[in-house]
Fold:
Amino acid sequence: MSAAIEIEDLSKQFRLYNEKYASLKERVIHGGKMPYEPFWALQNVSADINEGETYGILGRNGSGKSTLLKCVAGILKPTSGEVRVRGKLAAMLELGAGMQQELSGRDNIYMNGSLLGLSRSEITRRFDDIVAFAELEQFIDNQVKYYSSGMYVRLGFAVAVNVEPDVLLVDEVLAVGDAAFQRKCLDHVKRFQQEGRTIVVVSHATDVIRQNCERVMVLNHGQVIANDEVGEGIRVFLADLLGVGMSDGEGPEIAHGSNVLALGTVRAEHPGSGSRPHLYPGESLTVTAEIDSLAPVPDAIGGIAIYDDRNELVFASDPDDPLYQVDIPIGGGIMRFDFAEVPLLDGTYSISVNVRSLSRPAVFDLKDQVTQFEVANPGRATGRVRLPLNVSLRLRSSGNTGEVPVVRPVEVGAESSII
Amino acid sequence: MSIGSAEPIAVEPDPGDPTRSVTVDRALPADQRPLTVVNAKVRIGQRLKDIWTCRELLVLLVRTDLKIKYKSSILGYLWSMLNPALVLAIYFVIFNIISKNGIPQFAIWLFSGLIVWNLFNNAAMTATGVVVGRAGIVKKVAFPRELLALSTVGVAIVLFVIQVGVLILALLVFSHQPSYQFLVLLPLAIVALIIFTSAISIFLSAVNVYLRDTQHLTEVLLMAWFWSIPVVYPYGLVASGLGKFRYVYLADPITPIVMTFERAIYGKTTYIYPAGSTTSHELLPAWGLGPYALLLLVMLVVSIALFFLAMVVFGRLEGNFAEEL
Structure:
């Protein structure tokens, strides 16, 4: 498979000015020099994006992912390195960029199409399609300034998808608009995929990346920390996100430095399901985590969290409940989390495990989304959780029995013990 | 038992999706598609080629600029003539009626130089703010950004053409005879003027992104520049004052173009004032075609050099436009 985009050793430096002297007076006063700190938005980024592949670029805000996309699109020039793009490229960085308020929708279609690289005759040929797609037949000769924001975005999108590029760059625009519009966007992305076009999606949302991409590059502070198959990439991203997020003071600090205690292999087991590789809803689940400890930790608390395949939290144990406290001796052991029943419906769920201190706001170690388990529902109930449910009927006039409870309380929780 | 890592979730083709049957519109096989390279280097040849490829966009930019400019005004395009007409009237009243400079058919003299200046002035003034003004597309769309500066030159050319139309009308009304022999120089003068104007416009549009003073500075400098070229007053007036240094005055790149226009359209090199006397005043050098053509050629070469210089500066500065705006 040949590469549609080759990114070779790309670096981009921005200058962070302490104070921006944009006027001549200030420039003269400071002797023409402006104090700045070099800031590397991208550092030695390399990647080959294959023909026909849907490739994700994942990173937190400020990780350099949009800068990378702008370099690929040719909007920013890299400081060093090179990007080679084979074929016609269209970048959807902002829908309706360059729309002129004073002009009609018709004129703006020509303007926008030309900016995206279409010739006049190509636009004329696709004009009716664009108008139909944007559902703006009645308003096409009105000035754009009278359009609603929805109409505006629809027009921008209609032009962008009609460019029929070989390589499409998408920057989180899929998150714009109402649900119906998002659906339309995703349908188009799917069609482009089926037609073998190359798509690069930039996002900080793991579910967008997971649903659409085959491979993903994970950026952190301008550096590539993963360039891998999507599942592995997202795992790296989440581990990085949580690690960094906690040291930013937003949560308890991970006491990696102390190295008193380290988590090893985490396993999910469900002996109750026999040879089946998946659970049925309501079956029991046991998670074990190996612990190595250099010193005795008497006030350790085992924590466990379960995420669904859209990376939403399904359950996290109470971090302060003394019920989950374990006394870890020197050398450690294997921590066990027993769920008496898992009342979840279909899906692949991932498990995070941590060990923290009861008395201090410190996390000894965290293993984030390191193992998965799958639940397959043999019945026809749908949704996320199988709530225990009884349905019964009481005769209206008999009056000889009390009320039959309709819902039994759910017990979701984990008890931990040390073996 | 342990369960392995999750498989990537493949996008299932939706069998009900009507867009599935759309025929694939792929013009070229992979190895024949154009290769776009983005790197730190500035290759002027490539940039000029890109500008040429996007000429339709340039035309569209000019067209929409004009449309927006006169869209919500009642008189519309008439303003493109009313404005210079008013300027013309003011200078005529002040210099010909009040201070009696004695140049016969002064309006024609004034107009023939003023249209040259108007082209340059209109383009340079609007070009200075154009990249900053269109930050929206500069930050979000990839296209040769020189087009923005060139579009202001395009708009100025359109207004120039309209004014030339009015000038021709004026020549007919006043039955003024241009110097037909010198008219052949006008195409050369116009080409040189457009290249020079483009160079200055491209340069100013890029510099203003980094140094926002440029806009105000340009306004002041352009006003000073206007009074330094022989539009309102004749070349002869300056030449007699400068004596043997008179040729220094010709170093201003706009001056030879203005003089060529005046020589060709106004047609005379001297005038007699006061009427009835024999005192002859110099308007323009009484050269033949040769020296005028030579001046223009030098000016053309300088303009082309300036154009490449402006492209280099623009190319250097352009890399961070999206960041600076």
In short: Helices of chain A lie at 24-29, 65-73, 105-115, 120-134, 149-161, 179-194, 206-212, 230-250. The longest helix of chain A spans residues 230-250. Chain A has a mean pLDDT of 79. Chain A is about 25% helix and 35% strand.
